[in-house]
Amino acid sequence: xxYFTSNLMSIVDxxxxxxxxxxxxxxxxxxFDSLKPKxxxxxxxxxxxxxxxxxxxxxxxxxxxxxxxxxxxxxxDLLKVGERYVVDLELKFxxxxxxxxxxxxxxxxxxxxxxxDDRESHVITYILDEDKFFYxxxxxxxxxxxxxxxxxxxxxxxxxxxxxxxxLVSPYNNPDKFxxxxxxxxxxxxxxxxxxxxxxxxxxGEVALVSGDAGTGKTLVALTLMKMxxxxxxKVVFVFGGxxxxxxxxxVTEGYNIISVSTFVNRYxxxxxxxxxxxxxxxxxxxxxxKNVTDIIDGLIERNLNMVxxxxxxxxxxxxxxxxxxxxxxxxxSDFERTLSQKIRNNTDVAGFVKHFFDxxxxxxxxxxxxxxxxxxxxxxxxKEAARELIDEGVKFIDLTPARLGxxxxxxxxxxxxxxxxxxxxxxxxxxxAVMIDNSFKYSTDNKLTTQGYPSDTPYNPxxxxxxxxxxxxxxxxxxxxxNKELFAKIFYNTEVTR
Length: 499
Description:
Distance between the termini: 13 Å
Strand content: 15-25%
Largest sheet: 6 strands, mixed
Number of helices: 18
Oligomer: single chain
CATH architecture of the largest domain: 3-Layer(aba) Sandwich
CATH topology of the largest domain: Rossmann fold
Radius of gyration: 26 Å
Number of strands: 20
Number of domains: 3
């Protein structure tokens, strides 16, 4: 969506003098059609106050109306951007309850400072029924507000400043930023977080579920919940469904009680050393748990311990996880489930390509050829050379997890021998990811990606591992196609390019 700056007086004019056809066009052009009646009434009150103070015409001009940050569901009522200053003017019909005013001002200021690090940022709130302004959480005179708003607003490409990359953080890849609280949650993530806190407040034996696809922020919500418990001096155990990665190990040194699932089994398998005090168990990647783990969790539930399980039903890499029906077991644990549905991590072109790649019948709408790139080579050895060059450029190449116990699988030919495999990058994300596909992959007659030459008893599903690897990409994905030009040609079936 494109945004243009508007004059506040135009909102009043739009309400009073335009005929129906012109009103519709003018409203859409300026995003006025997004305004609710109470917001319009508040703006009219704001204008009247400015008139009473004999404000200069520049004060009324140059505002983005109801601007929403891409992928973040974060909205600013009136946003004014100048060469040296940026101001968010929030509109309230009445004073919000509790400390909501303070929280919104602090959060909005955080956004502005991240988006416009070269400008001085201000957040002001106008409350209509009190006819008062609030700045830095305190009441301020209208004359001071007018002075702040007296600069010339610029019609900038606002989305370029509010790049989601500036606000998102991967706790495992950027643990320092997580520890320093240099991140923000989306409105959906915040809602689910506080639903969980309310669920467990002064209660025992509560079980909650949180599901979501890759890129929806499950890890960030889980670890923020843990942080809030720690800040409140409450006990919490965080169980990760794999071996701990470097980011998790750093968090452990900072006092975060994060353990691997194998440690969990060794520590609690006998059911002898269970916590006797109130404690919250947080399980991440729980869709990967085997029956020996789920049996222990069932035992914890019988002992009235609180827990929340985060899971992604699409991210099961082993046939054992599928055969054990771990996802079905999770769903039967509780009726309290929240779903993270807003994908904020992935570039939309990357996310669209991944869906299309695994199911060619799904249309791929391409808006940028930079988000997904391809390198087509004649052999796997050439593909490995291309992969090494990408690694030298700082790209994260991820191998499919190889077979164990001396067993050989067709895709083992592509193994580059890097430390990052499908299993080692669980829960992590990277700005630019590269993967390789060879002639072990093909499209079936119904346009679904499938494999050829694979034994039916393969422990790790190559399609699910490839999906796991691709969905680690935040902003860019490079696909190396080795000795499989037939598949490459079919990738672009059902594709639409718009720029």
